[in-house]
Amino acid sequence: MAISETGADAGIDTVYRADCPSRPILDQIADKWSMMVMAVLDKPTRFNEIKRRLEGVTQRVLTQTLRRLERNGMVVRRVLPTSPVGVEYSLTPLGESLREPFGRLYDWTVENADEIRAHQMDYDQRVQS
């Protein structure tokens, strides 16, 4: 579904234009790590717990991802009054609103993974020949 520049009947879809305001937002929230972080945040969670649950993410990438999500209003960061100081992250209402569509995308991926891998192997064999 595309949003046109001056209304639904204008015929020019801004979503396809390089200057569409949705592009940088999609780049920031639809990447692999953002989606995985948001899936992990079913309750307020400390940084190290997020890192443990997301096998393969580096501390640097996780920090950048959480900052981007916080900047975009998807995640809130809360400093805990502990010693040493702890930090936990949780979804905002805006971030929570993405759980359902991200969940559908995840379910679709799992349901179609075998078929996709079969297509990839078929393609790779054809290209190598």
UniProtKB/TrEMBL annotation:
Keyword Transcription: yes
Pfam families, sorted: HxlR (PF01638)
Domain HTH hxlR-type stretches: 20-117
Taxonomy, superkingdom: Bacteria
Transmembrane intervals: none
Transcription as UniProt keyword: yes
Keywords: DNA-binding, Transcription, Transcription regulation
Gene3D superfamilies, per the entry: Winged helix-like DNA-binding domain superfamily/Winged helix DNA-binding domain
Name assigned to this protein: Helix-turn-helix domain-containing protein
Species of origin: Streptomyces hesseae
